[in-house]
Amino acid sequence: MISVVDRPANKTKTGLLTASFLFVCALLLSACQPAEQTTRWQGGVMGTRYHIAITSDQPIAAGLEQQVAALVAALDQRFTTYSDDSELMALNRQPVGVPLAISAELYAVLAEAAEIYRLSGGAFDPTVGPLVELWGFGRSAASDQLPSDSAIATQLERVGFDGLALLEGQRAVRLRPVQLDLSAIAKGYAVDAAADLLDANALHDYMVEVGGELRLGGYNAEGSRWRIALESPLQFGQVERVLAITDSALATSGDYHNYFTVAGVRYSHTIDPRTGRPVPRGLVSVTVLAESSMRADAMATAISVLGAKKGLALAEQLGLPVYLLNLRDGALEAQSSSAFAPYLAPIQD
Known about the structure:
Layout: E1 2-5, E2 13-16, H1 21-29, E3 38-45, E4 48-55, H2 64-79, H3 87-93, E5 100-101, H4 104-119, H5 129-134, H6 149-156, E6 164-167, E7 171-174, H7 186-200, E8 206-210, E9 213-217, E10 226-231, E11 239-245, E12 248-254, E13 259-262, E14 265-268, E15 271-272, E16 277-278, E17 283-290, H8 293-306, H9 308-318, E18 322-328, E19 331-336, H10 341-344
Antiparallel strand pairs: 1-2, 3-4, 4-8, 5-7, 6-7, 8-9, 9-12, 10-11, 12-17, 13-14, 15-16, 17-18, 18-19
């Protein structure tokens, strides 16, 4: 899934390929599943890939695969910033102070984003886009020059999720000219929507993944919990830990996929919206388990920005299973929240 590309100059940057390392490892670790018991679907969505594995001893309803594909494609079109026709971009263009009626799907994502923005003290912020662009991690071409303090200060004035308000009647209003980007939460919502559709069709044993965000229901074809491999941040293709999961969602965020270096200093794509600068290197991987993939997706980003100490404190406050990998003197050091303890035990089934 991940390829590191070194630039010839003193600045390097990694890129993401579209296949999911997590999903591939999960399939491999679930052992040799009888083909007649496992159905697999995949496709492209949200600038990445989705993969679905369903365990069932009954025929799957005709046309369900097409329904799932249509669902995630519709959500992509609703949440994307890459199409001027998307609902999100319509909200971004809406005049300040003028409410806009929005869909239930967009309202749900914005409500969850607002909650995590509040819980994290602003560490999770879907309006961080101007800073992401400024540091060369957006659609604009990266520069060999680091942004100036004044440029950072200027963009910080455009950031702040408190510049959006959700109103009764399923409406939203921009209080300031903020621009929303839901890439750190929308994939999780799409995972949940696809999983809910499978549950509604009496398919309760599944693995749904979009761009590395997962939701696991029931059991694999062997009757065991789904095995999910966490990638080592230091060695491509190497497994750091294997988790056995059922009826839960999982997301991992890290600084080892997308970064650049200038004058020997490494700058992560994870931007702290409170300071306007990339988070310092140290916490290289954050894995979060939650009831919904949407929450796991956003919380993984929030904790990555908060750092290990404050991130673990938030996880303890919320009772979230969280697994952190810190880089100290070239070696990985693992930390986890109290709720993650069951996942550290040897896998029995």
